[in-house]
Amino acid sequence: MAIWRVHRSIEDLKNRSKNTLIENIGIEFIEIGEDFIKAKMPVDNRTKQPYGMLHGGASLAFAETLASEAASLCIDNFQKICVGLEINANLIRSVSDGFVYGVAQPISLGKSIHVWEIKITNEETKLVCISRMTLSILDKNKIGYSKSVL
To answer: Which end of the chain is more exposed for a tag (fewer CB within 10 A), N or C?
Structure first.
C-alpha cells in the first residue's frame, strides 16, 4: 500500500534539490516505490575523505536527504513541515569509487514523529551503512514558517 500523501516525480525531487547540498554532492533520486524512496550518490572528490574512501559525513548527509524527502512526501506540505530530530549510522564497509545507493523506508509514521531506516549499499549491493532518522512533524502556522518548498 502506498504511503505517500504528496505525489512528486523524480524530476520534481531534482528541481527541489537545485542549489542545495543535495545537488552539490551529486545525489540523484532514481525511484519512488510504494513505501520507499531510492537515490544514488557518487563516491568522488565531493564525497571522499583524505584517505580516498567515502566520508562518513557524506553517508549521513545522504541518509538524511533520503529520510527527509521521504517524510515530506507523507505529510500535508501546505500545513506541515518535517525537521530532523536525530540521526545515527553504522558505517559497515568502505567504498573508494563508483556510486552508493540508498533506500529509505518507514519504521513508524506517526502524526508528530516519523522514524525512517536508510540502507546504503555499494554497486555490488553490499551494505555500506545503515542509518535511522527521527523527524518531527511540525505545524507551519505554530512555528511561523511560510517558505514554500513544494
So the answer is: N
Domains, the chain, in order of start with CATH, read 10-143 (3.10.129.10)
64 is an active site residue: yes
| From 64, 69, 117, 124, active-site residue | 64
C-alpha cell at 88: 545515527
Burial zone of 52 (CB within 10 Å; 0-12 exposed, 13-18 middle, 19+ buried): exposed
pTM: 0.94
- Taking only the tens place, the pLDDT of each residue in 105-136 is 999 999 999 999 999 999 999 999 999 999 99
CB-side neighbour CA atoms (13 Å) of 100: 35
Q: Using CA atoms of 27, 30, 43, 150 in order, give the dihedral in degrees to the nearest 10.
A: 10
